[in-house]
Amino acid sequence: MTNPNQQNRAPQQIQAENAPNVVTGTFSIQVQSIDVLFNLGATHSFISVKRVEVLRLVLTRKSSLLSMILPNWKTVMCEELYEDCPIRMYEHEFLTDLYRFELANFGVILGMDWLANHQTQIECPRSKITLQGPNGGKVVHKRKGPRASC
């Protein structure tokens, strides 16, 4: 369980679709396409306020669960958690806990909690991620477009 008093780093709200130092992809939740950012700089995973409304997700917890410090040093609280949201990547479905947060450019940001849980390896020069699938096999995603240079 998350310590409510723990300070965490927030995801940066950047326009990264064509940035050379990130890995992104388009996957789905409830057959709805979602732009996803794989973010080593975020301690937790997030879903945009807009996507929560469109998908009509069922809130699983409401309280001051997560305190975050933004890049401008402002502290904000994430009070809504959506547990076990199914994100479909190719033919694989991954469950993830997502905090509701105002995101400008992505529907979902998958942070270190999700990346570590799925033993994700990010190869920035190849714009590629490899992770452990639900059945234990490897799942590979390679970003289309410019190569990353993390």
Characterization of this structure:
By secondary structure, the chain is mostly beta strands. The chain has a domain at 7-11 and 22-116: Acid Proteases (Cathepsin D, subunit A, domain 1). The protein is built from two helices and eleven strands. The chain has an eight-stranded mixed sheet with strand order 1-5-6-7-4-8-3-2. Strands 9-10-11 form a three-stranded antiparallel sheet, with no helix packed on it. Strand 6 and strand 7 form a beta hairpin. Mean pLDDT is 82; it is low at 1-15.
What is this structure, in a nutshell?
The chain has 150 residues and is mostly beta strands. The chain contains 2 helices and 11 strands, in the order ββββαββββαβββ. It has helices at residues 49-55, 112-117, and strands at residues 7-9, 23-29, 32-38, 46-48, 61-69, 75-89, 92-101, 108-110, 121-123, 128-132, 138-142.
Q: Determine the CATH topology of the domain at 7-11 and 22-116.
A: Cathepsin D, subunit A, domain 1
**Top CATH class of the domain at 7-11 and 22-116:** Mainly Beta
Helix content: under 10%
Give the overall average pLDDT: 82
Query: What strand line-up does the widest sheet have?
Result: 1-5-6-7-4-8-3-2
The biggest sheet amounts to: 8 strands, mixed
